[in-house]
Amino acid sequence: MKNSTIFEEIEARETRLGMSYEIMSNSSANLDTTLDEWIRFLSYFKPDELSFLERLDAKELSELTESEIQKCLKLREQKELLDLLKKYKNKTCTKEEHDRVLEYINGSLKSFMKSRLTRSEKEKAKERIAFYKEKTSKQLGEYIDSQMEHYDTLSLLDAYVLYQVRDLKQKKDNDEAIKEIVKGQKERAYYLRKALRRDFGI
User: Fold this and answer.
1) More confidently predicted of 53 and 132
2) Model-level pTM greater than 0.85?
């Protein structure tokens, strides 16, 4: 039995039961994302997920357990989203599909990225992110520029680290901006007090 047939039979079963399986995300909003990053991570299926789909080839729908059906539905959702985002990128989607894309990309890309990494990759990412936390905003910017030059060839691990480093740089830049504002406020307060002493003897 082919994987596409499994998806179709499960969908038909849902229709008979009056069920719907809408594409949605309850994650916190994160608008600072790129379509290419979503597509890259949606395109990746873990080895155990691929082997799971291969095992389903030998089963009929009636033989699937509830947990297998749920896992299959989750993988189908990922494949549907991938196809949908590709259509959106190529500007070939309908108005309804366009709205579904906007709904989904408001979710947290960071959480989804992390879910696609293996345990060992997560550990490596943690070490590398800790290393970049010690770098200056300028150094982070140089790293980001060098990685973006060949973004299409980055591994999932490298793409995840890049995303986190971009977040680190933004936070460092924001911190520097706040420091400059505070510094400016202190300087204005100093000169104001100086002017008051001079003009009014305060």
Assistant:
1) 132
2) no
